[in-house]
Structure formats: structure tokens, C-alpha cells
Amino acid sequence: MKTHCVYVQLLAAASFCGQLVSGETVSEINGNKYLSPYNGKNVTYVDGLITAKGPNGIWIRSTTPDKDDRTSESVYVFDKNFGKNLTVGDVIQLNGTVSEYRSSKAYVYLTEIVNPKLVRKVSSGHAATPLVIGKDTINPPTKAFSALDDGDVFAVPNNASLISSTNPTLIPRNYGMDFWESLSGELVTVKGAHALTKPNNYGDTWVIGDWKVTGLNSRGGLTTVDKDANPEAIIIGSPLDGSKNPVITRVGDVLGDITGVVSYSFGYYTILPLTALKIAKGVEPALPPPTSLVSDGDCGGITVGSYNVENLWAGSDHLVNMSAHIVDYLRGPDLVFVQEIQDNNGEKNDAVVSANLTLSTLTSAISSLGGPEYEFAQIDPVDDKNGGAPGGNIRTAYLYNPEILRLRNPNFGSSTEANQVLSGPELKYNPGLIDPTNSAWTASRKPLVAAFETLDGKNSFFTINVHYGSKGGSSSIEGDARPPVNGGVDDRQDQMQLTAEFVADILAEDKNAKVIVAGDFNEFAFVEPLENFKKISNLKDLDEAANVPELERFTYLFDMNSQELDHMFISQALKPKAQYEHVHINTWVTAAQQISDHDPSVAKFNICKR
Ligand SMILES: *[C@@H]1O[C@H](CO)[C@@H](O)[C@H](O)[C@H]1NC(C)=O
Ligand SMILES: *[C@@H]1O[C@H](CO)[C@@H](O)[C@H](O)[C@H]1NC(C)=O
Ligand SMILES: *[C@@H]1O[C@H](CO)[C@@H](O)[C@H](O)[C@H]1NC(C)=O
Ligand SMILES: *[C@@H]1O[C@H](CO)[C@@H](O)[C@H](O)[C@H]1NC(C)=O
Ligand SMILES: *[C@@H]1O[C@H](CO)[C@@H](O)[C@H](O)[C@H]1NC(C)=O
Ligand SMILES: *[C@@H]1O[C@H](CO)[C@@H](O)[C@H](O)[C@H]1NC(C)=O
């Protein structure tokens, strides 16, 4: 404790020399790292202006700031009753204990003062002026999250270090988490905010303000690209006045200015707004256009769709709406790769594995809406061995238009028989699964390999429909583990390796073979399992081959990011004139209006024999 004269800066012309005793400053309490140097210690005579009050505490801002960008000048004082007789605009002096709090060990600690004791109220009626982010502060960094990620938030191995044990010195100019940490407890304004994703059920919504960003897509979201996962975004949490944020916000909706305090909750840096968000202007148009890719009806231009239909079974509420998407938005592609087809009775956990009722209900609905009269091809899995919702027995399947395509020499493999590439190349089973008893597929979907041909038998191509292991078990992108845990990444590495080797076998037989691998990869194109997949399979990323602009490559929303989990990869022979479109029918709409959590995609290829 220091005892000397202080000049309470906000009290013009008033000096309290000899009357006030000064103790630790807020910036000393926060320090220039993640963890407070005073953690667990008592602090006394801490001066601060009350900038905000919440249901469980108040926020104070130092009246004696330092000049260090790294040390936040504000801090949360956690106590339900402490603020009862105090008001925003009061300058107070308090004693208390510094505490580092987190509700889960996967999270970063929040520095707070607990057991506060009011020493005195110094004065009142001061303005609590928020800092405008990007104007009164530096700009939030736009690419990297933490120095501990070593330049790549998606690098493997994951969880190589922990912020809580390494406790790095903050570099707010370079690292997004450091930037937000350096403003912990601060009252801030986000000017000209717009939404980046749909809110969660509580209305928590990711936003950016009018500061400089990278990765902005044409809808107003931020797309994840290699080494840029958008730490310039911040999530707006529960309003301090008890009001509720809207749950109908969409990516791109204009929200206007948002004022609140910077905190950390549920694994993310958060702004707790003073009051609920308002949608100032809804983004337009409400719905995306249908794909422009329509089948030519012959080998010169066949269309191929891919859609994760999200736990679809014969009795699904969303089956008809899903069918309408396939007809109206995908325009009835000649071949559709579908993922997450459940068995006939969905999540009823019995011995049923057949999905023929699910698929025939889907194909009837499609034809009754004016779409093709699809036939389907798939292989029932072994009960309870494919992961996903218990009892659902999800699998991948093909829908194909029998007026355009047929299976080439059909010979269905079983759930346990491994498909093989025979000379020709031909498939041992058509369709058949890739090495289905391999432990790489434990609790996951086995890729469905098939060969299709035009009805004259002259033009053929190979397909592999994949749905790799999920990202379940991932840790927060702004959590303690660095790089964050990318759940299931090792499984996906093995799964993609097996798939790539199968493709390599086809191309070893015929380097001009036409091969399409599509589906839900549960991974980004620039992360190790997919880098490895591309190298071994020698397939091309269709987004690149068809020149889809990099920032428009997204099929899914997660955290602050628009991102691509669903891909198509093609062999060189399919590259000439290949076209590809992502149809943002689910990412653009409200949470209540989405039919699946993924967007579908459509491609168009020339499959004529050359
Ligand atoms: C810290 O303050 C608390 C009262 O809030 C007191 O009980 C405790 O003894 C103090 N600890 C030290 C080390 O002074
Ligand atoms: C608030 O003020 C009232 C009246 O002066 C007093 O009884 C009460 O103890 C005070 N509450 C707190 C939390 O300081
Ligand atoms: C604050 O701490 C100082 C120094 O320990 C002590 O003298 C004073 O009584 C404390 N005030 C309150 C209100 O706890
Ligand atoms: C589904 O397959 C079973 C036999 O595996 C058959 O009895 C049943 O009729 C089929 N149902 C449909 C709708 O095709
Ligand atoms: C990260 O590793 C630490 C051990 O260093 C472990 O305690 C922690 O649970 C791991 N975190 C996650 C999210 O897996
Ligand atoms: C599903 O389709 C029906 C009929 O067109 C429509 O009324 C309903 O709003 C759709 N549901 C959703 C979630 O879009």
C-alpha cells in the first residue's frame, strides 16, 4: 500500500492531499498479462468510477490510469449487494480481494474483485463515457487469437499449452484474445454493429463494429480462411438491465451502436450490453436465389448436389421442407449426395437399421413437388456403429435420377465388406463401403463408394459420399487450451487418409478416371486432415477449380464464423468447365427457419468420355 497525495482526476480542481490514501490501481491489479499479479491478495483503497451495474456486481474504471495499452483500466467488482446504494457516475474507494474466476477449466480466467468493502464514496455525478472500439482503442486484430497458437489457431497438435499456466504478456495489437483481455471490465461502444451469425437460444449474438475487418463475405458474415479465424468479432451476451436480446437476428442484420462492458463468459470474450440489442435494419434479400446450375440432361452437363439433411427420417417434421429445398433451390440435381439419413424410425433405439422408408418417403415428396423421380442407393450400417444421435443409425446415401444416370453394374456390398478397386478400374461392390471394419470408423460413417454411368453405358464416373467424424469435444476458440482442441481431428486424419488411398487406387488404374468425393467433411480445407487428403488423393478442391471466391466458401455458421465443412473434390478429368455453387438457404435465415444446420451445394460437370 502506498500512502501519498492523489489527485482524483475526474474531480476538477479538487485535491485531497492528506485526506485520501491511495492503494493499488486498477491497472496494477489487472497487470499486463492474463492473470492478475494480485490474484488471491487483498487490495485496499482502490479508486474507481462506477461505469455500469449488473445483477451481480458493478464495473469500475480507474481514476488514475496508466499509459500502458496492455493493462485494462477497468475491473468487475463481484458482489450482489455492494452496488445497491451506489450509482453509475459515483467515484468510490474500496477494499477487496482479487480473484481469478472461471466456471470451467476449459475457459480463460476473468479478473475480478470479490468481498468488496466500501471505504468511501468520493463524489458522484460523473459521466461514464464508453470507449469507442477502434477509435478510443486500437483496432481489434483480425487474424490471430493468441501468441500461443504459433500463427495458426487450427494447428495440430492441439492444446500444446494453456493460457492459465503460460500466462503470456499481452500483445493487444497482434492477438485478438489479448486485445479483448486488455479491455476486460471496460465500458465500450461498438459503433455501427452488424450480426455475424444467428444468436443462440439466449439471444447471444456475434457482431463486428465499424472497425477494419478481414474476411467479410457478401452477406455480411466473416469467413474463416487459412490462418484467419476472425478474432475481431465479439459476442454480445445477456443485457445488464434484464431485457432479452432478439433470437431472430440473421447474419448481416444491422444492429446499430451497442454499449456494454467487456467480460468473459461461457468460453468467450463477451460484451454484456446495457440493454437488449435491436435490429435496426434487416439484411436483404431474405432468401438466396436458387442455384443457377441446371442439368443439360446428358453427359455434357450433369448436375450433382450435396446436402447434409440433418437427422432425416421417415417421420421428420422437416422432410417436406427438405424436399422442397432439393426441388426449388437445388433444382433437382441428377445426383444428390445426402448425409445424415436416419433409419426408418429415426432415433427410436431398436434394431431397425433399414432406411428404405426414410428414403422412399423423401423421394416421393420430391417427385410430388415436381422434382425428379429419384431412385436411391445406400448400405444399411451395423446397428449403433455409425455415431450420431443414438438410435438414428445415420448414414450417407445417393439419390439419382434414373432418366439420366444408373449404377454401373450394380452389386451391393454389405455393411462389413470392404470395397476394392479392380482393374478397369471397376469396383468390387457398387455401391460398397471403404474398409468398414477399420477402427478409423469407430462411431462414424463409412464412406459410400459408387460408380454411375449414363443410360447408354458410355460415360461413367466414381463417387464417394463422406460424412467424417464430428468436431464434438472441441474447446472454445477463445478458451484456455492453445491451439484450441479441434475435437476428432485425429479421427478425421485417419478417415481422410483411408478415403484418399482409395481414390489413389482408382487413379492408379486410370489417371483420367472421373472421381467426385463430396459430403460433410467436418473440417476446413486448410487444416491438416484435408491437406493430407489432397496430397494423397491428388484431387482438386472444387471451390478452387470452379473459382468460387474464397470468402463465399461457406456452408455453416459456428462461433463468429461463416465456414465450410462441406466440400467437393474432383479428379483432374472433371475439371474442365466444372461449376460449383453454395446455396445459402440455411445460413441466411433465422434459426427457426433453417431446415438443416448446413447449406447444400450444387456442381455441374461434363462427364462425357473423351
Ligand atoms: C483479506 O481480507 C479479508 C476480509 O475481506 C480478511 O478476512 C482476510 O484476513 C484478509 N487477508 C489478509 C491476508 O489480509
Ligand atoms: C444501503 O443504505 C441503507 C440506508 O443507509 C443501509 O441500511 C444499507 O445497509 C446499505 N446497504 C449497503 C449494501 O451498503
Ligand atoms: C480498508 O483497508 C484498510 C487497510 O487494511 C483498513 O484500515 C480499513 O479499515 C479498510 N476499510 C474497510 C471499509 O474495510
Ligand atoms: C424396406 O425393405 C424391407 C426389407 O428389407 C421391405 O420389407 C420393405 O417393404 C421395404 N420398404 C420400402 C418402403 O421399400
Ligand atoms: C488440455 O491439456 C491439459 C493438460 O495440459 C488438460 O488438463 C486439459 O483438460 C486439456 N484441455 C482440453 C480442453 O482438452
Ligand atoms: C415448411 O414448409 C411449410 C409449407 O411450405 C411452411 O409453411 C413452413 O414455414 C416451412 N417451415 C420452415 C421451418 O421453413
UniProtKB/TrEMBL annotation:
GO molecular function term, any single one: catalytic activity
Keywords noted in UniProt: Signal
Domain Endonuclease/exonuclease/phosphatase, first and last residues per copy: 306-598
Signal peptide coordinates: 1-23
Highest taxon listed in the record's lineage: Eukaryota
Any one Pfam family match given in the protein's UniProt record, by short name: Exo_endo_phos
Name this protein carries in UniProt: DNase I-like protein
Source species of the chain: Aureobasidium namibiae CBS 147.97
